[in-house]
Write a structure and sequence with these properties.
By secondary structure, this protein is of the alpha+beta class. The chain contains 12 helices and 10 strands.
């Protein structure tokens, strides 16, 4: 596995720790870790690799939806119709909304966003894509705000229909961190304070990926994060098991971390462990 680093000497111990974690792994792993204190407080390991996003892109989608709300085009109170036929169309995909409303329902946009991000709901995801103009509109928005190292081409219904499609929805680890930073630091007042607070709290309430970043930091740590997982193909290969997030430290500072595990033969537990060990190494580094 090739490694590429661009960071300050102060990050050398963490760089070495990550190298040790990855050196014997049968997977391609992209890592970006950025601290909040100084400009050179960064580390990148294969951070420029284009790797499948999977459901990580639900964060990017939600960011655009919140921006549309601030533009007056949508409202969290808008009532969204989920008809019974739609629940049948998505019967093979993960969707807490589909399970909760098997016969369809009218629910608030707020509930759709929360389920999409916090529970990685695939039906909710595609409802949001339909509301804002599809994947291309979300990609154009991210490119406009400066996050150019990503491509968003397929909604979930298409993404899950063909194994190869997920490689066309890609990001780099450093672009994932960039999107997190633009959101959290609210660059150019991208979101209103209300929208920023809402989405941050949804990310803090994410219920997936508890063995990933959350598995490597103390239980009481606050983490705002989003996951992505491809499942395994017939050969047991995992195309994507990802977690990106903002980790808040006891001293009030934070760091951004994106770990994208791709084409992994380490199994589900082994792939989770890669992310957890890198997150622990980062936590220990910033705590020391």
């Amino acid at each position: 596995m090739a490694f590429g680093f661009s960071d300050a000497q102060s990050m050398a111990p963490l760089r070495l720790d990550i190298h040790k974690i990855l050196e014997d792994k049968s997977a391609t792993v992209g890592v970006a870790i950025w601290g909040s204190h100084q400009q050179d407080d960064t580390i990148s390991v294969n951070g420029h690799y284009r790797l499948p996003m999977q459901s990580v892109y639900k964060f990017h989608l939600a960011l655009y939806v919140m921006h549309q709300i601030d533009q007056g085009k949508l409202s969290l109170d808008d009532q969204i119709t989920i008809d019974k036929q739609l629940t049948k169309t998505y019967s093979h995909l993960w969707s807490p909304l589909r399970k909760q409303y098997p016969d369809g329902a009218k629910i608030s946009l707020e509930e759709v966003i929360t389920s999409t991000v916090a529970w990685s709901d695939n039906l909710g995801c595609d409802i949001l894509f339909d509301l804002v103009g599809g994947p291309s509109a979300v990609q154009a928005f991210l490119h406009k705000v400066g996050v150019t190292e990503l491509a968003i081409r397929h909604p979930e219904i298409q993404l899950q229909a063909d194994w190869s499609h997920q490689y066309q929805n890609w990001t780099t680890a450093r672009a994932a961190n960039q999107a997190l930073r633009i959101f959290y630091e609210n660059t150019n007042e991208l979101l209103s304070p209300e929208s920023h607070s809402f989405l941050l709290n949804v990310l803090k309430g994410t219920q997936t990926g508890l063995k990933d970043i959350r598995g490597g930091v103390p239980e009481e740590a606050v983490v705002a994060h989003k996951t992505g997982y491809s499942g395994q193909n017939d050969e047991g290969l995992i195309a994507a098991l990802n977690n990106i997030g903002i980790v808040f430290l006891p001293d009030g500072s934070h760091f951004y971390i994106s770990v994208l595990v791709s084409d992994s033969s380490e199994g589900v537990e082994g792939s989770h462990k890669i992310i957890a060990e890198i997150a622990k190494a980062a936590w220990d580094h910033y705590q020391s």
